[in-house]
Design goal:
The chain has 8 helices and 7 strands, in the order H-E-H-E-H-E-E-H-E-H-H-E-H-H-E. The chain has 214 residues and is α/β, with parallel strands linked by helices. It has a 7-stranded mixed sheet, with helices on both faces. Strand 4, helix 4 and strand 5 form a beta-alpha-beta unit.
Length: 214
């Protein structure tokens, strides 16, 4: 369990490459919640660039501490359980590269649907071609998406692909994908391949989901 509570004390503050994409999907002044907010870098950027009102939740002691030092409204706790928020309390619920790290992704998704009108979810696509090649030719668990960790000590406990995610959305019900974006590559040919064969070439897909009222 400790391996899943990442230590943010030694992580330098920086903007991950998907942050700008996520920011482009959120309107000015929106009310957001970042589930699995880590050290609060994404929230801080959204406050500065989009003037959002925001709250974060993270299970990590160091993540919560870093958020508080930034003046971010943050709560410590798990995100894959019943959350103490009202229905439709937020405009957007964000879960950035974290859904693969929780014990109950389906619970997380249902709670995101309940507390926000829109959901933004990104994750490392395990069906990325480098992972496929490593498994095929080396016969080992790929670590391309584990960001320095190994299969036995990574918090990435539910590796998934784009196809897996879309299936989960269908099974969850009352949700529809309204936008599918991704972190682009600098090379034009790879950008083209990412659009034509997303499940093979997209490294970090980003989905905007809209709740469908009963």
């Amino acid at each position: 369990d400790l391996n899943r509570k990442y230590n943010y004390n030694d992580i330098i503050n920086f903007e991950r490459e998907e942050y700008k994409k996520i920011a482009s999907l959120i309107p000015e002044g929106a009310k957001i919640i970042d589930l699995g907010c880590g050290n609060g870098n994404l929230i801080e950027m959204l406050i500065n660039k989009k003037n959002v009102s925001a709250v974060g939740i993270d299970i990590s002691d160091s993540g919560v501490s870093e958020c508080k030092q930034k003046g971010i409204d943050v709560i410590q706790g798990a995100i894959d359980k019943k959350l103490d928020y009202k229905d439709d309390e937020f405009d957007y619920a964000i879960c950035n590269v974290t859904i693969q790290m929780v014990n109950y992704p389906e619970v997380l998704l249902n709670e995101m649907k309940r507390i926000a009108r829109y959901q933004i979810i990104s994750f490392p696509n395990f069906a990325f071609y480098k992972n496929r090649l490593k498994l095929l030719f080396k016969g080992k668990m790929p670590d391309t998406m584990l960001f320095g960790y190994k299969w036995f000590n990574s918090g990435h406990i539910h590796q998934l692909s784009i196809k897996d995610f879309k299936e989960l959305i269908r099974q969850t019900g009352n949700m529809k994908i309204i936008k599918h974006d991704f972190v682009p590559n600098k090379y034009l040919i790879q950008k083209i391949l990412m659009r034509i064969f997303p499940n093979l070439f997209q490294y970090i897909p980003i989905f905007v989901i809209q709740k469908i009222k009963d």
